[in-house]
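Quick question: what would this complex look like in 3D?
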Amino acid sequence: MDTLRFSVLKEDLAALDKLLFGSVVLLIFWGIACIFSAGSGSAGRGGEYAIRQLSWGVFSCMAYVLVVGIGYRQFMDWAYPIYGVTLLLLFATMLAAPRVKGAQSWFSLGFIRFQPSEFAKISLTLVLAKFLSRYPPLSPKPFLGGLGVGMPALLLVLAQPDLGSALVYIVIIFSALFVAGTPFKYLGSILGLGASLLPFGWFYLKEFQKMRLLVFLDPTRDPLGAGYNAIQSRIAVGSGSVWGKGFLQGLQSKLRFLPEPHTDFIFSVYAEEFGFWGSSLLLFVFGIIFTRIVAAGMKSRDIQGKLIVAGVTAWIWFQMFESIGMSIGLMPITGLPLPFLSYGGSSLLSIAIALGLTGSVYAGAAKRYK
Amino acid sequence: MLEIRDLLDARLKALLYGILVTLAILFTGLYFFQVIHADKYVRLAYGNRLRLIRFSPPRGEIYDRNGVPLAVNETTFSIMGYPLDLDKSDMLPHLSRLLSDHGIPMSVEDLEKTIKKQRWAPYRVIRLVPNLTMAQMAELVADPEFPNQLFPMPVWRRIYPAGSLAANITGYVGEISENELRDSRPGDYVGGDLVGKGGIERYYEERLRGAAGEEAIEVDAKGRKVRTIDSRASGKGQDIRLTLDMGAQKLATELLSEYKGAIVVMDVKTGAVLVLASSPTYDNNPLAWGVSAKEWQEITEDKDKPMLDRSISGVYPPASTFKALVALAALEENVVTPSTTFFCSGALKLPSRTFRCWKRSGHGNVNLTGALQNSCDVYFYQVGMKLGIDRLLKWGKKFGLGTPTGIDLPGESGGNAAGPEWKKERFKENWYQGDTINYSIGQGFLLLTPLQIARLYAAVANGGHLVTPHVASMNFQPPTEIGLLPEKLAVVQKGLDYVVSRGTGARAGRFGITVAGKTGTAQNSHGLDHAVFAGYAPADNPQYVAVAMVEAGEHGSSVASPIVGEILAHILSHPAESYDAQEN
């Protein structure tokens, strides 16, 4: 039995998408280099951060292999229980988590702290794939059902309040519905409804969230506080110019003009040191990653597989777009990590698990039709 | 089924195309910032003309219960400058020369050290020279040599009007250390900030410190201010009103001046601390201004330990004052009744060892009140043996012995009220009956702080409520119930009454008030015995409890009891108006 399982795993791993895997590993190493650089200013904790991120990277790779070995079908069987546990964890976080920078998104588990909101992205993707493959959202009832399935996670994360993760959840839910074949008139009406509710949402936002949005519209509104980050990040990216200042030569992050350069503003550090050619290369690698993940979905004959791919793609895409967009002022500041590059174990591990799922979808499709 | 798969594939493809379009948007955006407008941002980055100034907020002030100031602020001036300007080669030698011309010794190395400590970002202002008076500052600014990149800034300095009289309570402030800075919440402090280092200043740091103000200014190439971009006013810290009575505190310090020791006075019902004197003491004013390493060493290495607050951190054998608790435990556990008598021949002879009473000729037949009144040791040896160590420790625990009382001051000790298990672990020895006998007269391994003794007597006086001692009036916490039977408590109270009205503590009753309490003489293996007295007044309607611990005072009856009598008389004749109204 064990040898059988092992040979299945070996077969699965052999069938994996090498280009995708290589691109991801490249980005993780790139990220570690940036984390080292970001932390090598006067605070001098860059080495420590880099080593911790490296060990998270290794750990994430093992998680990836493990998930591929288990196979996404197994996860689909557990989709509802996993989702239930995640909702409980999100609820517990809301009640008990210590406050980090005003938002309660951390959950301490003895020696490691993790963010349930990160792992909820996986279980949300799984549960949507399960529900929408069983009840295709071609008529109003299953469409509303799909929305209803995603709503508890969204509301819990909004209550933390973690606006950034909430936006990711919205994008995941919307993309899963879109790819599952929801008619455009439903999608249009949900967009319209969302737009009309937006002004009411304003009153719900916390003071610092309102400030971030106002500052997005006018960075000089609060140059000491929220607007300061936006201005300094733009200076960092812009001053990188075409060729960049060179690895470890970025001034904005070293002199601590940039806040939290190793997490939220990692792209600013990267763009300052590697310039426009480096940024373009990074976008290109992200382009490869998205193309390859979607290819897994196209290749698979399984609707569930396609829907998993839709959720994972949308999730990684939104975080990338938001993180890079905010560093040049195209998007408001929300504090979302840049996938693969930002410092943070929860984020890296959850994305590795998600990629394990899409890898398993890809391997499954390759095997069946050999 | 086939059609829906095709639909899904079409949608997936659409998703991918959408994503690639957003990548193109980002690419365009980056091209815009990093290629087309790169010059502008490079200029902004290198010639960053933004400067931030931080205004320290005035700290909250500290007052005693009658509004007597204990910690207030005074304006002084600092010379400030920016790292960007200070990095210019001749700036520091020039400044050092200028300062010494005006009688302020400050070497280039001193300045460099100051800068290094506070350097955080090149646009953040640094305090170069602190604590200048208005006159010094005016003279410096008037000097044409004064560099125009530097500027004066008013700062608050901490003054302690009561100085050494209450240094153990107010504590002092000092410049934040690198470790404290690292452990603080980001944004709360910067190098050079003052933080509480001891006493109330440290315990209530969060409340006292206030919120720093900030100003962002744009400067020209010479570092002169062009305009204010943004500013945020600083907010004063919250004031703290203490329960301390400075009049009584001063009297207590005077009474202790010839001795080492401590005096604690507390409201028996609320745990509000009126006096917390420790001798010898120190002046906290120089510490707040920054003392040299040598001066600091002198204070911390003084063998009399002036910075040790003996009232909350000093531990002593409670000696005979502990008999009140042994008596209570014995009554509650029905080991004795008020009429039980033991015969005191002057000593208790056990096969292994003989335990003497302090009165060699013996007390004859004594009951509980008589044993308290005359402090008969043999009576309590007998009671202790009957009670046993476990029950004795259980009652000690009920009165909070062995753990800190929870007073709102840092560095409190919990004393030691541990038993057989502790002894086994610490000394690898079994617990002997002799250990229990020693405990029953408050000697042996038993160690309490004066504050713990005061809390014990407060509970005896107030009918069995365990109070939480506090010095800040807002920190009152409701007492907890110990669960004592009133008629048993009354027996002990009567015994304590007899101690002063006709027994060993008579000298406490010579100040025009009725006092009930207990004397004690704590054996000291290092020298003369310590004298202790714990008592409350008025005896029939207790309001305040006082404990005097006098190191090397030899006899509780002659040295410690008159101190307690005098201080309680002073407090009862000088009632505090404002405070009682606040809390009751």
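Answer marked as accepted. Chain B has two domains: 50-241, 246-583.
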